[in-house]
From TrEMBL:
<feature type="region of interest" description="Disordered">
    <location>
        <begin position="22"/>
        <end position="69"/>
    </location>
</feature>
<protein>
    <recommendedName>
        <fullName>Alanine, arginine and proline rich protein</fullName>
    </recommendedName>
</protein>
<dbReference type="InterPro" id="IPR045596">
    <property type="entry name" value="DUF6459"/>
</dbReference>
<dbReference type="Pfam" id="PF20060">
    <property type="entry name" value="DUF6459"/>
</dbReference>
<feature type="compositionally biased region" description="Basic residues">
    <location>
        <begin position="50"/>
        <end position="59"/>
    </location>
</feature>
């Protein structure tokens, strides 16, 4: 099958082709003074606030298990701080911590003078590692000083949270 020969271009078509202009290519950057308008300030999501909450230990969690582990971690951190402040004996930790953690707290409580003001928990953060293990951190304040405690909690065979590792900052 033979291809058809090209059709001849009419004079009117040639005139239109020669008079057509090629548009100027756009610049890669806008000229000075022609920048896009700045974005508006980001809106806050509903239910968020920049104000500090009075008691961060009692926040509601969307997951009931996460709320339970957060409350348990906060309670165990309070117990550990009471031992550090020498308001409780280390015997209170027998069911809540391993012997290594208890020894560490006993050693550190001897270094803290009784004249120091008691420590106060500022915040507790909990992250699940597995279904039966969490890692938590606690920020505390004693007088003008702020310090942190990090711990790993696992569910014991009795179903209670048990501190297996501790780092005092």
């Amino acid at each position: 099958m033979a291809t058809p020969s090209p059709r001849p271009i009419a004079r009117t078509d040639l005139a239109r082709i020669h008079s057509a202009r090629i548009a100027e290519l756009p610049r890669s950057e806008p000229s000075p003074g022609r920048h896009a308008k700045p974005c508006a300030a980001p809106r806050r999501l509903p239910g968020t606030s920049s104000r500090r909450r009075p008691n961060p230990l009692h926040r509601r969690a969307s997951d009931p298990a996460a709320g339970h582990s957060s409350r348990a971690a906060a309670a165990l951190f309070r117990l550990m701080i009471d031992v550090l402040d020498q308001r409780r004996d280390t015997g209170h930790l027998r069911r809540a911590a391993t012997p290594a953690v208890i020894d560490l707290l006993a050693e550190r409580s001897k270094q803290c003078p009784a004249s120091m003001p008691p420590a106060r928990i500022l915040s507790v953060h909990v992250r699940p590692v597995t279904a039966h293990c969490i890692e938590a951190s606690c920020t505390c304040e004693r007088g003008q000083r702020v310090f942190a405690i990090a711990a790993r909690f696992e569910i014991s065979r009795h179903g209670a949270w048990h501190c297996t590792a501790l780092d005092l900052g």
